Amino acid sequence: MKEISTVKLDTDILIIGGGAAGCMAAIEAKKLDQSIKCIVMEKAHIERSGCLAMGLNAINAYLNAGQTPETYVEYVKDEFFGVIREDLVYSIAKGLNESVKQVEALGLPIEKDQNGNYVSRGKRSIRIYGERLKPILAAAVYRADVKVLNRVVATNFIFDGKRVRGAYGFGNRDGKFYVIHAKAVIVTTGGATRLYKPIKTGDARNTTWYCPWNVGTGYAMGIRIGAEMTSFENRFIPLRVKGVNAPTGTIGQGSDIRQRNALGEEYLEARYKHLGGKRCLSLHRLFATLQEEREGRGPCYFDTRDLSIEEEKKLKEAYLNMNPAVVLLWANDGYNPRKRPVEIGGMEPVVIGGHCQAGYWIDGERRTTINGLFAAGDVAGGAPKKYVSGAWVEGKIAAKAAFDEVNEVELLHVNGEKVNKEKERILSCMNCREGKSPEELERNLQEIMDEYAGGVTSHYELTESKLIIARKKLKELKGKLQLLSAGDKHELVSCLELIDRFDVAKVLIEHLIYRKETRWPVFQTRTDYPEKDDTNWLGFVNSVYDPVKDRVKIIKRALKKENEYLYK
Protein backbone atom coordinates (compact mmCIF):
# COMPACT_ATOMS: atom_id res chain seq x y z
CA MET A 1 0.00 0.00 0.00
CA LYS A 2 1.31 3.41 -0.97
CA GLU A 3 1.92 5.67 2.06
CA ILE A 4 0.80 9.31 2.16
CA SER A 5 1.62 12.02 4.66
CA THR A 6 -0.92 13.23 7.20
CA VAL A 7 -1.85 16.83 8.01
CA LYS A 8 -3.56 17.43 11.37
CA LEU A 9 -5.41 20.66 12.13
CA ASP A 10 -7.61 21.93 14.97
CA THR A 11 -10.40 24.49 14.67
CA ASP A 12 -13.53 25.73 16.38
CA ILE A 13 -15.83 25.50 13.34
CA LEU A 14 -15.18 23.41 10.24
CA ILE A 15 -17.22 24.26 7.15
CA ILE A 16 -17.26 21.57 4.48
CA GLY A 17 -18.03 23.09 1.10
CA GLY A 18 -17.11 26.56 -0.16
CA GLY A 19 -20.26 27.40 -2.13
CA ALA A 20 -22.88 30.05 -1.35
CA ALA A 21 -23.89 28.67 2.06
CA GLY A 22 -20.34 27.74 3.06
CA CYS A 23 -18.84 31.13 2.21
CA MET A 24 -21.62 32.96 4.03
CA ALA A 25 -21.31 30.70 7.08
CA ALA A 26 -17.57 31.49 7.26
CA ILE A 27 -18.16 35.25 6.89
CA GLU A 28 -20.86 35.18 9.57
CA ALA A 29 -18.77 33.17 12.05
CA LYS A 30 -15.94 35.70 11.84
CA LYS A 31 -18.43 38.58 12.05
CA LEU A 32 -19.67 37.17 15.35
CA ASP A 33 -16.17 36.86 16.77
CA GLN A 34 -13.01 37.65 14.83
CA SER A 35 -10.96 35.46 17.16
CA ILE A 36 -12.91 32.28 16.44
CA LYS A 37 -11.01 29.64 14.49
CA CYS A 38 -12.76 28.70 11.26
CA ILE A 39 -11.69 26.45 8.40
CA VAL A 40 -13.40 25.99 5.02
CA MET A 41 -12.65 22.67 3.29
CA GLU A 42 -13.38 22.89 -0.45
CA LYS A 43 -12.85 20.13 -3.02
CA ALA A 44 -12.25 22.66 -5.82
CA HIS A 45 -11.37 26.33 -5.26
CA ILE A 46 -13.79 28.70 -3.56
CA GLU A 47 -13.28 31.35 -6.25
CA ARG A 48 -14.92 29.12 -8.88
CA SER A 49 -16.60 26.14 -7.27
CA GLY A 50 -20.00 24.54 -7.01
CA CYS A 51 -23.19 25.40 -8.86
CA LEU A 52 -22.32 29.12 -8.95
CA ALA A 53 -18.95 28.58 -10.63
CA MET A 54 -20.03 30.19 -13.92
CA GLY A 55 -22.03 32.93 -12.24
CA LEU A 56 -25.68 33.89 -11.86
CA ASN A 57 -28.01 36.31 -13.59
CA ALA A 58 -30.83 36.54 -11.07
CA ILE A 59 -31.63 36.19 -7.39
CA ASN A 60 -34.69 33.94 -7.49
CA ALA A 61 -35.63 34.26 -3.83
CA TYR A 62 -36.23 37.89 -2.94
CA LEU A 63 -39.29 39.65 -1.54
CA ASN A 64 -40.27 42.40 -3.94
CA ALA A 65 -42.92 44.99 -3.11
CA GLY A 66 -46.13 43.34 -1.93
CA GLN A 67 -44.39 40.13 -0.84
CA THR A 68 -43.95 39.07 2.78
CA PRO A 69 -42.41 36.06 4.56
CA GLU A 70 -45.95 34.74 4.99
CA THR A 71 -46.79 35.02 1.29
CA TYR A 72 -43.47 33.37 0.46
CA VAL A 73 -44.32 30.38 2.66
CA GLU A 74 -47.70 30.04 0.95
CA TYR A 75 -46.09 30.23 -2.50
CA VAL A 76 -43.59 27.46 -1.67
CA LYS A 77 -46.30 25.38 0.03
CA ASP A 78 -48.50 25.60 -3.09
CA GLU A 79 -45.64 24.66 -5.40
CA PHE A 80 -44.91 21.54 -3.35
CA PHE A 81 -48.51 20.45 -2.81
CA GLY A 82 -48.58 21.05 0.92
CA VAL A 83 -45.45 19.14 1.96
CA ILE A 84 -42.76 21.54 3.19
CA ARG A 85 -41.23 22.53 6.52
CA GLU A 86 -43.03 25.82 6.96
CA ASP A 87 -40.83 26.81 9.89
CA LEU A 88 -37.66 26.47 7.82
CA VAL A 89 -39.08 28.27 4.78
CA TYR A 90 -40.34 31.09 6.99
CA SER A 91 -36.98 31.56 8.68
CA ILE A 92 -35.35 31.75 5.24
CA ALA A 93 -37.92 34.22 3.90
CA LYS A 94 -37.34 36.56 6.83
CA GLY A 95 -33.65 36.88 5.99
CA LEU A 96 -33.69 36.96 2.17
CA ASN A 97 -33.57 40.70 1.54
CA GLU A 98 -31.04 41.41 4.26
CA SER A 99 -28.69 38.76 2.88
CA VAL A 100 -28.99 40.11 -0.66
CA LYS A 101 -28.12 43.61 0.53
CA GLN A 102 -25.18 42.18 2.48
CA VAL A 103 -23.74 40.53 -0.64
CA GLU A 104 -24.39 43.68 -2.66
CA ALA A 105 -22.27 45.54 -0.09
CA LEU A 106 -19.52 42.96 -0.70
CA GLY A 107 -19.45 44.01 -4.36
CA LEU A 108 -22.24 42.16 -6.20
CA PRO A 109 -23.67 44.39 -8.97
CA ILE A 110 -27.48 44.36 -8.94
CA GLU A 111 -29.45 45.80 -11.85
CA LYS A 112 -31.43 48.92 -10.89
CA ASP A 113 -33.92 51.19 -12.61
CA GLN A 114 -33.63 54.95 -13.03
CA ASN A 115 -34.98 55.45 -9.52
CA GLY A 116 -32.36 53.21 -7.95
CA ASN A 117 -34.75 50.31 -7.29
CA TYR A 118 -33.87 46.70 -8.00
CA VAL A 119 -35.16 45.47 -11.37
CA SER A 120 -37.52 42.57 -10.77
CA ARG A 121 -37.79 39.44 -12.90
CA GLY A 122 -40.99 38.37 -11.18
CA LYS A 123 -42.69 38.68 -7.80
CA ARG A 124 -39.83 36.97 -6.01
CA SER A 125 -36.85 37.54 -8.30
CA ILE A 126 -34.42 40.35 -9.19
CA ARG A 127 -31.83 40.71 -11.95
CA ILE A 128 -28.12 40.77 -11.13
CA TYR A 129 -24.77 40.90 -12.92
CA GLY A 130 -23.43 37.85 -11.17
CA GLU A 131 -20.68 36.42 -13.37
CA ARG A 132 -18.16 37.16 -10.58
CA LEU A 133 -20.40 36.15 -7.70
CA LYS A 134 -18.09 33.38 -6.44
CA PRO A 135 -14.89 35.51 -6.61
CA ILE A 136 -16.75 38.22 -4.66
CA LEU A 137 -17.77 35.77 -1.94
CA ALA A 138 -14.31 34.19 -1.87
CA ALA A 139 -12.64 37.57 -1.44
CA ALA A 140 -14.90 38.29 1.55
CA VAL A 141 -13.94 34.94 3.11
CA TYR A 142 -10.24 35.73 2.73
CA ARG A 143 -10.72 39.26 4.14
CA ALA A 144 -12.36 37.69 7.18
CA ASP A 145 -9.12 35.77 7.82
CA VAL A 146 -10.72 32.35 7.41
CA LYS A 147 -8.35 29.46 6.71
CA VAL A 148 -9.30 27.88 3.38
CA LEU A 149 -8.24 24.41 2.31
CA ASN A 150 -8.77 24.45 -1.44
CA ARG A 151 -8.71 21.20 -3.40
CA VAL A 152 -9.20 19.03 -0.34
CA VAL A 153 -11.98 16.46 -0.76
CA ALA A 154 -13.98 15.59 2.36
CA THR A 155 -14.16 11.81 2.77
CA ASN A 156 -15.94 11.15 6.09
CA PHE A 157 -16.89 12.80 9.35
CA ILE A 158 -14.82 12.18 12.46
CA PHE A 159 -17.54 10.63 14.61
CA ASP A 160 -17.13 9.18 18.09
CA GLY A 161 -20.56 7.54 18.13
CA LYS A 162 -22.18 10.47 19.92
CA ARG A 163 -20.86 13.64 18.31
CA VAL A 164 -19.17 14.76 15.11
CA ARG A 165 -15.66 15.86 16.02
CA GLY A 166 -14.42 17.05 12.62
CA ALA A 167 -13.76 15.46 9.25
CA TYR A 168 -11.19 13.65 7.15
CA GLY A 169 -10.04 14.86 3.77
CA PHE A 170 -7.80 14.00 0.85
CA GLY A 171 -5.79 16.60 -1.06
CA ASN A 172 -6.47 16.05 -4.74
CA ARG A 173 -3.38 18.07 -5.67
CA ASP A 174 -0.93 17.46 -2.81
CA GLY A 175 -1.99 13.84 -2.17
CA LYS A 176 -2.04 14.38 1.60
CA PHE A 177 -4.47 12.92 4.15
CA TYR A 178 -6.15 15.59 6.29
CA VAL A 179 -7.44 15.08 9.83
CA ILE A 180 -9.33 18.17 11.00
CA HIS A 181 -10.69 18.18 14.54
CA ALA A 182 -13.45 20.70 15.24
CA LYS A 183 -15.88 21.61 17.99
CA ALA A 184 -18.68 22.00 15.41
CA VAL A 185 -19.06 21.11 11.73
CA ILE A 186 -21.29 22.80 9.15
CA VAL A 187 -21.84 20.76 5.99
CA THR A 188 -22.64 22.83 2.88
CA THR A 189 -21.54 20.51 0.07
CA GLY A 190 -24.52 20.88 -2.26
CA GLY A 191 -26.79 18.23 -3.80
CA ALA A 192 -26.14 15.13 -5.89
CA THR A 193 -25.90 14.84 -9.65
CA ARG A 194 -24.53 12.09 -11.96
CA LEU A 195 -26.69 9.48 -10.23
CA TYR A 196 -28.56 8.88 -13.48
CA LYS A 197 -27.33 8.27 -17.00
CA PRO A 198 -26.69 11.70 -18.52
CA ILE A 199 -28.46 12.90 -21.63
CA LYS A 200 -25.14 13.93 -23.15
CA THR A 201 -22.58 11.19 -23.70
CA GLY A 202 -18.82 10.84 -24.16
CA ASP A 203 -16.72 13.91 -23.42
CA ALA A 204 -19.92 15.96 -23.04
CA ARG A 205 -21.41 13.78 -20.28
CA ASN A 206 -20.64 16.40 -17.62
CA THR A 207 -22.50 19.13 -19.51
CA THR A 208 -25.28 19.06 -16.97
CA TRP A 209 -27.65 21.69 -15.62
CA TYR A 210 -26.37 21.17 -12.06
CA CYS A 211 -22.68 21.24 -11.20
CA PRO A 212 -21.31 17.78 -12.17
CA TRP A 213 -18.87 17.82 -9.25
CA ASN A 214 -21.66 18.11 -6.67
CA VAL A 215 -21.97 14.36 -6.23
CA GLY A 216 -23.75 14.07 -2.86
CA THR A 217 -20.64 13.69 -0.68
CA GLY A 218 -22.21 15.66 2.17
CA TYR A 219 -25.32 13.48 2.03
CA ALA A 220 -23.25 10.28 1.92
CA MET A 221 -21.06 11.25 4.86
CA GLY A 222 -24.16 11.88 6.96
CA ILE A 223 -25.87 8.70 5.77
CA ARG A 224 -22.87 6.62 6.84
CA ILE A 225 -23.03 7.88 10.46
CA GLY A 226 -26.80 7.49 10.78
CA ALA A 227 -28.03 11.06 10.26
CA GLU A 228 -31.74 11.34 9.49
CA MET A 229 -32.47 12.35 5.91
CA THR A 230 -35.68 13.62 4.35
CA SER A 231 -37.52 13.80 1.02
CA PHE A 232 -34.97 12.18 -1.30
CA GLU A 233 -37.90 11.03 -3.42
CA ASN A 234 -38.66 14.70 -4.18
CA ARG A 235 -36.16 14.72 -7.05
CA PHE A 236 -35.57 17.76 -9.23
CA ILE A 237 -35.74 17.59 -13.03
CA PRO A 238 -35.19 20.98 -14.66
CA LEU A 239 -36.66 22.19 -17.91
CA ARG A 240 -33.58 23.36 -19.80
CA VAL A 241 -32.22 24.53 -23.14
CA LYS A 242 -31.29 21.48 -25.17
CA GLY A 243 -27.70 21.10 -26.25
CA VAL A 244 -26.07 22.95 -23.35
CA ASN A 245 -28.53 22.28 -20.48
CA ALA A 246 -28.77 26.02 -19.80
CA PRO A 247 -31.59 27.19 -17.49
CA THR A 248 -34.83 28.17 -19.20
CA GLY A 249 -35.89 30.61 -16.48
CA THR A 250 -33.53 33.14 -18.08
CA ILE A 251 -35.83 33.11 -21.11
CA GLY A 252 -39.26 32.48 -19.66
CA GLN A 253 -39.40 34.00 -16.19
CA GLY A 254 -40.98 37.43 -16.09
CA SER A 255 -41.59 37.47 -19.86
CA ASP A 256 -44.44 36.82 -22.28
CA ILE A 257 -42.48 34.26 -24.28
CA ARG A 258 -44.68 31.24 -24.98
CA GLN A 259 -43.91 27.53 -25.01
CA ARG A 260 -44.84 26.02 -28.39
CA ASN A 261 -44.73 22.53 -29.85
CA ALA A 262 -43.47 21.44 -33.27
CA LEU A 263 -46.84 22.38 -34.78
CA GLY A 264 -46.46 25.95 -33.56
CA GLU A 265 -49.21 25.52 -30.97
CA GLU A 266 -49.05 27.30 -27.62
CA TYR A 267 -49.71 24.23 -25.51
CA LEU A 268 -49.69 25.32 -21.85
CA GLU A 269 -52.94 27.23 -21.99
CA ALA A 270 -54.41 25.21 -24.85
CA ARG A 271 -54.13 21.75 -23.28
CA TYR A 272 -52.98 22.17 -19.69
CA LYS A 273 -55.13 25.03 -18.43
CA HIS A 274 -56.28 22.80 -15.58
CA LEU A 275 -52.68 22.95 -14.31
CA GLY A 276 -52.68 26.73 -14.32
CA GLY A 277 -52.13 27.60 -17.97
CA LYS A 278 -49.16 29.88 -18.61
CA ARG A 279 -48.87 30.47 -14.86
CA CYS A 280 -48.63 26.80 -13.98
CA LEU A 281 -45.95 25.52 -11.63
CA SER A 282 -42.44 24.89 -12.91
CA LEU A 283 -42.86 21.11 -12.71
CA HIS A 284 -46.09 21.40 -14.72
CA ARG A 285 -44.21 23.27 -17.46
CA LEU A 286 -41.93 20.24 -17.70
CA PHE A 287 -44.86 17.82 -17.44
CA ALA A 288 -46.68 19.54 -20.31
CA THR A 289 -43.55 19.55 -22.48
CA LEU A 290 -42.98 15.83 -21.94
CA GLN A 291 -46.62 15.07 -22.73
CA GLU A 292 -46.42 16.98 -25.99
CA GLU A 293 -43.34 15.01 -27.01
CA ARG A 294 -44.86 11.64 -26.03
CA GLU A 295 -48.01 12.40 -28.01
CA GLY A 296 -46.03 13.18 -31.16
CA ARG A 297 -46.09 16.97 -31.06
CA GLY A 298 -42.46 17.50 -30.12
CA PRO A 299 -39.90 18.85 -30.01
CA CYS A 300 -40.99 21.84 -27.98
CA TYR A 301 -39.63 25.38 -27.87
CA PHE A 302 -39.61 28.74 -26.21
CA ASP A 303 -40.82 30.99 -29.01
CA THR A 304 -38.24 33.79 -28.97
CA ARG A 305 -39.04 35.07 -32.46
CA ASP A 306 -40.86 38.16 -31.17
CA LEU A 307 -37.81 39.43 -29.31
CA SER A 308 -36.56 42.85 -30.30
CA ILE A 309 -32.88 43.39 -31.09
CA GLU A 310 -32.44 44.99 -27.66
CA GLU A 311 -34.27 42.11 -25.91
CA GLU A 312 -32.09 39.57 -27.71
CA LYS A 313 -28.99 41.45 -26.53
CA LYS A 314 -30.30 41.44 -22.94
CA LEU A 315 -30.98 37.70 -23.16
CA LYS A 316 -27.43 36.97 -24.29
CA GLU A 317 -26.01 39.24 -21.60
CA ALA A 318 -28.02 37.37 -19.00
CA TYR A 319 -26.64 34.04 -20.18
CA LEU A 320 -23.09 35.41 -20.20
CA ASN A 321 -23.58 36.12 -16.49
CA MET A 322 -24.57 32.52 -15.79
CA ASN A 323 -24.06 30.05 -18.63
CA PRO A 324 -21.80 31.48 -21.35
CA ALA A 325 -21.67 28.14 -23.17
CA VAL A 326 -25.09 28.72 -24.71
CA VAL A 327 -24.04 32.09 -26.16
CA LEU A 328 -20.81 30.60 -27.52
CA LEU A 329 -22.78 27.75 -29.10
CA TRP A 330 -25.22 30.17 -30.71
CA ALA A 331 -22.35 32.26 -32.06
CA ASN A 332 -20.54 29.19 -33.41
CA ASP A 333 -23.66 27.93 -35.16
CA GLY A 334 -24.72 31.34 -36.45
CA TYR A 335 -27.92 30.93 -34.44
CA ASN A 336 -30.26 33.86 -33.83
CA PRO A 337 -33.05 33.34 -31.25
CA ARG A 338 -35.09 36.04 -33.02
CA LYS A 339 -35.20 33.87 -36.13
CA ARG A 340 -35.44 30.39 -34.63
CA PRO A 341 -37.10 29.37 -31.34
CA VAL A 342 -35.08 27.80 -28.53
CA GLU A 343 -35.60 24.03 -28.15
CA ILE A 344 -36.30 22.80 -24.61
CA GLY A 345 -36.55 19.50 -22.74
CA GLY A 346 -35.92 17.72 -19.47
CA MET A 347 -32.61 16.70 -17.93
CA GLU A 348 -31.55 13.70 -15.87
CA PRO A 349 -32.85 13.86 -12.26
CA VAL A 350 -30.79 15.35 -9.44
CA VAL A 351 -31.19 15.21 -5.66
CA ILE A 352 -31.09 18.73 -4.28
CA GLY A 353 -32.37 20.67 -1.28
CA GLY A 354 -32.39 24.14 -2.84
CA HIS A 355 -34.84 23.74 -5.72
CA CYS A 356 -36.58 20.73 -4.17
CA GLN A 357 -36.13 19.56 -0.57
CA ALA A 358 -33.93 16.47 -0.29
CA GLY A 359 -31.40 16.61 2.50
CA TYR A 360 -30.65 16.43 6.19
CA TRP A 361 -33.57 16.58 8.59
CA ILE A 362 -32.79 19.70 10.62
CA ASP A 363 -34.22 21.90 13.34
CA GLY A 364 -34.80 25.64 13.07
CA GLU A 365 -31.16 26.40 13.87
CA ARG A 366 -30.01 23.97 11.15
CA ARG A 367 -28.85 21.28 13.56
CA THR A 368 -28.98 17.80 12.11
CA THR A 369 -29.94 14.77 14.19
CA ILE A 370 -26.24 14.17 14.91
CA ASN A 371 -24.71 16.27 17.69
CA GLY A 372 -22.12 18.75 16.51
CA LEU A 373 -23.29 18.66 12.88
CA PHE A 374 -25.20 21.46 11.11
CA ALA A 375 -26.41 21.64 7.50
CA ALA A 376 -27.15 24.57 5.19
CA GLY A 377 -27.89 25.21 1.52
CA ASP A 378 -28.63 22.48 -1.02
CA VAL A 379 -27.64 19.75 1.44
CA ALA A 380 -30.26 20.82 4.01
CA GLY A 381 -33.74 19.34 3.60
CA GLY A 382 -37.33 20.47 4.03
CA ALA A 383 -37.10 23.98 2.56
CA PRO A 384 -37.34 24.07 -1.25
CA LYS A 385 -36.98 27.13 -3.47
CA LYS A 386 -34.32 28.66 -1.25
CA TYR A 387 -31.93 29.20 -4.16
CA VAL A 388 -28.72 31.18 -3.59
CA SER A 389 -30.14 33.84 -1.27
CA GLY A 390 -31.82 31.19 0.87
CA ALA A 391 -28.50 29.35 1.07
CA TRP A 392 -26.92 32.55 2.38
CA VAL A 393 -29.61 32.82 5.04
CA GLU A 394 -29.16 29.21 6.11
CA GLY A 395 -25.38 29.61 6.23
CA LYS A 396 -25.80 32.53 8.62
CA ILE A 397 -28.31 30.67 10.79
CA ALA A 398 -26.06 27.61 11.03
CA ALA A 399 -22.98 29.71 11.80
CA LYS A 400 -24.78 31.53 14.63
CA ALA A 401 -26.00 28.24 16.15
CA ALA A 402 -22.55 26.63 15.85
CA PHE A 403 -20.91 29.73 17.33
CA ASP A 404 -23.26 29.67 20.33
CA GLU A 405 -22.34 26.04 20.94
CA VAL A 406 -18.56 25.86 20.57
CA ASN A 407 -17.67 27.59 23.83
CA GLU A 408 -19.41 24.77 25.69
CA VAL A 409 -17.70 22.00 23.71
CA GLU A 410 -14.31 20.47 24.38
CA LEU A 411 -12.06 19.87 21.39
CA LEU A 412 -11.40 16.12 21.38
CA HIS A 413 -9.08 14.07 19.19
CA VAL A 414 -10.13 10.63 18.00
CA ASN A 415 -7.75 7.73 18.54
CA GLY A 416 -5.17 6.72 15.96
CA GLU A 417 -6.96 3.48 15.13
CA LYS A 418 -9.96 5.34 13.68
CA VAL A 419 -7.70 7.70 11.77
CA ASN A 420 -5.75 4.80 10.27
CA LYS A 421 -8.95 2.99 9.34
CA GLU A 422 -10.16 5.94 7.26
CA LYS A 423 -6.73 6.39 5.74
CA GLU A 424 -6.69 2.73 4.71
CA ARG A 425 -10.18 3.04 3.22
CA ILE A 426 -9.05 5.92 1.03
CA LEU A 427 -5.88 4.18 -0.06
CA SER A 428 -7.52 0.84 -0.76
CA CYS A 429 -8.12 1.99 -4.33
CA MET A 430 -4.41 2.77 -4.83
CA ASN A 431 -2.88 -0.65 -4.25
CA CYS A 432 -1.87 -1.06 -7.91
CA ARG A 433 -3.82 -4.30 -8.34
CA GLU A 434 -6.02 -5.06 -11.32
CA GLY A 435 -9.52 -3.84 -10.70
CA LYS A 436 -12.51 -1.86 -11.97
CA SER A 437 -12.15 1.70 -13.19
CA PRO A 438 -14.50 4.30 -11.65
CA GLU A 439 -15.76 5.12 -15.17
CA GLU A 440 -16.89 1.53 -15.76
CA LEU A 441 -18.79 1.24 -12.47
CA GLU A 442 -20.19 4.74 -12.88
CA ARG A 443 -21.82 3.59 -16.10
CA ASN A 444 -23.22 0.54 -14.28
CA LEU A 445 -24.75 2.74 -11.56
CA GLN A 446 -26.22 5.24 -14.00
CA GLU A 447 -27.72 2.55 -16.22
CA ILE A 448 -29.43 0.92 -13.23
CA MET A 449 -30.85 4.23 -12.07
CA ASP A 450 -31.90 5.30 -15.56
CA GLU A 451 -33.71 2.09 -16.50
CA TYR A 452 -35.22 1.04 -13.17
CA ALA A 453 -35.44 4.23 -11.05
CA GLY A 454 -37.14 6.73 -13.32
CA GLY A 455 -34.45 8.16 -15.60
CA VAL A 456 -34.77 9.93 -18.93
CA THR A 457 -35.25 6.82 -21.06
CA SER A 458 -38.18 5.68 -18.89
CA HIS A 459 -39.78 9.15 -19.11
CA TYR A 460 -38.98 9.67 -15.40
CA GLU A 461 -41.76 7.25 -14.48
CA LEU A 462 -41.54 4.94 -11.46
CA THR A 463 -43.10 1.60 -10.52
CA GLU A 464 -42.51 -0.52 -7.44
CA SER A 465 -41.55 -3.57 -9.52
CA LYS A 466 -38.78 -1.67 -11.29
CA LEU A 467 -37.59 0.01 -8.12
CA ILE A 468 -37.22 -3.36 -6.41
CA ILE A 469 -35.08 -4.50 -9.32
CA ALA A 470 -32.99 -1.34 -8.87
CA ARG A 471 -32.56 -2.18 -5.18
CA LYS A 472 -31.39 -5.69 -6.05
CA LYS A 473 -28.98 -4.51 -8.72
CA LEU A 474 -27.49 -1.89 -6.40
CA LYS A 475 -26.75 -4.61 -3.86
CA GLU A 476 -24.97 -6.58 -6.57
CA LEU A 477 -23.03 -3.47 -7.60
CA LYS A 478 -21.87 -2.90 -4.03
CA GLY A 479 -19.60 -5.95 -4.24
CA LYS A 480 -17.92 -4.54 -7.32
CA LEU A 481 -17.13 -1.30 -5.52
CA GLN A 482 -14.55 -3.25 -3.51
CA LEU A 483 -12.67 -3.73 -6.81
CA LEU A 484 -12.33 -0.02 -7.60
CA SER A 485 -8.82 0.81 -8.76
CA ALA A 486 -7.20 4.20 -9.28
CA GLY A 487 -4.00 4.98 -11.15
CA ASP A 488 -3.47 8.49 -9.75
CA LYS A 489 -4.83 11.04 -7.27
CA HIS A 490 -7.61 12.27 -9.55
CA GLU A 491 -8.85 8.76 -10.27
CA LEU A 492 -8.81 8.14 -6.52
CA VAL A 493 -11.14 11.10 -6.04
CA SER A 494 -13.38 9.64 -8.77
CA CYS A 495 -13.49 6.37 -6.82
CA LEU A 496 -14.48 8.17 -3.62
CA GLU A 497 -17.14 10.18 -5.48
CA LEU A 498 -18.62 7.01 -6.95
CA ILE A 499 -18.89 5.42 -3.50
CA ASP A 500 -20.66 8.56 -2.26
CA ARG A 501 -23.12 8.53 -5.16
CA PHE A 502 -23.82 4.86 -4.56
CA ASP A 503 -24.69 5.56 -0.91
CA VAL A 504 -27.02 8.37 -1.97
CA ALA A 505 -28.64 6.18 -4.66
CA LYS A 506 -29.51 3.35 -2.28
CA VAL A 507 -31.29 5.81 0.04
CA LEU A 508 -33.06 7.43 -2.91
CA ILE A 509 -34.38 4.04 -4.04
CA GLU A 510 -35.89 3.32 -0.62
CA HIS A 511 -37.62 6.71 -0.53
CA LEU A 512 -39.01 6.23 -4.04
CA ILE A 513 -40.36 2.80 -3.10
CA TYR A 514 -41.95 3.95 0.13
CA ARG A 515 -44.04 6.92 -1.06
CA LYS A 516 -47.00 5.18 -2.67
CA GLU A 517 -48.63 8.10 -4.45
CA THR A 518 -47.77 10.70 -7.08
CA ARG A 519 -47.13 13.87 -5.07
CA TRP A 520 -44.89 15.81 -7.52
CA PRO A 521 -45.64 14.94 -11.19
CA VAL A 522 -42.51 14.10 -13.25
CA PHE A 523 -40.27 14.68 -10.23
CA GLN A 524 -41.90 11.68 -8.56
CA THR A 525 -44.44 10.01 -10.85
CA ARG A 526 -45.58 6.58 -9.64
CA THR A 527 -47.55 5.04 -12.51
CA ASP A 528 -48.75 2.31 -10.15
CA TYR A 529 -50.03 5.01 -7.74
CA PRO A 530 -50.92 7.83 -10.16
CA GLU A 531 -52.95 10.04 -7.79
CA LYS A 532 -51.98 12.40 -4.97
CA ASP A 533 -53.15 10.91 -1.66
CA ASP A 534 -53.42 13.52 1.10
CA THR A 535 -55.10 11.08 3.44
CA ASN A 536 -52.07 8.83 3.74
CA TRP A 537 -49.12 10.82 2.40
CA LEU A 538 -49.45 14.45 3.47
CA GLY A 539 -46.12 14.30 5.28
CA PHE A 540 -42.45 13.47 5.02
CA VAL A 541 -40.62 10.30 4.09
CA ASN A 542 -37.41 10.24 6.16
CA SER A 543 -34.71 7.63 6.59
CA VAL A 544 -31.80 6.52 8.76
CA TYR A 545 -29.14 4.13 7.53
CA ASP A 546 -28.05 1.33 9.88
CA PRO A 547 -24.44 0.43 8.96
CA VAL A 548 -24.45 -2.69 11.14
CA LYS A 549 -27.44 -4.24 9.38
CA ASP A 550 -26.68 -2.45 6.10
CA ARG A 551 -30.30 -1.41 5.97
CA VAL A 552 -32.14 1.86 5.31
CA LYS A 553 -34.88 2.37 7.90
CA ILE A 554 -37.76 4.53 6.70
CA ILE A 555 -39.41 6.97 9.12
CA LYS A 556 -42.75 8.51 8.20
CA ARG A 557 -43.18 11.97 9.72
CA ALA A 558 -46.48 13.82 9.67
CA LEU A 559 -46.76 17.52 8.94
CA LYS A 560 -46.92 19.65 12.03
CA LYS A 561 -50.11 21.57 12.56
CA GLU A 562 -49.80 25.18 11.52
CA ASN A 563 -49.87 26.46 15.10
CA GLU A 564 -46.98 24.17 16.03
CA TYR A 565 -44.61 26.12 13.80
CA LEU A 566 -43.09 28.91 15.80
CA TYR A 567 -42.76 31.89 13.48
CA LYS A 568 -40.23 33.97 15.36
Secondary structure layout:
Elements: E1 6-16, H1 20-32, E2 38-42, E3 58-59, H2 69-79, H3 86-106, E4 120-122, E5 125-127, H4 133-143, E6 147-150, E7 152-159, E8 164-171, E9 177-187, H5 217-224, E10 229-230, E11 239-241, E12 246-247, H6 249-252, E13 259-260, H7 267-271, H8 282-294, E14 300-302, H9 309-320, H10 324-333, E15 342-346, E16 359-360, E17 373-375, H11 387-406, H12 416-427, H13 438-452, E18 461-462, H14 464-481, H15 489-514, E19 525-526, H16 534-537, E20 539-546, E21 551-558
Parallel strand pairs: 1-2, 1-9, 2-6, 9-17, 18-19
Antiparallel strand pairs: 3-5, 4-5, 7-8, 8-9, 10-16, 10-20, 11-12, 11-15, 13-14, 14-15, 20-21
Helix pairs in contact: 1-4, 1-11, 2-3, 3-11, 5-15, 13-14, 13-15, 14-15
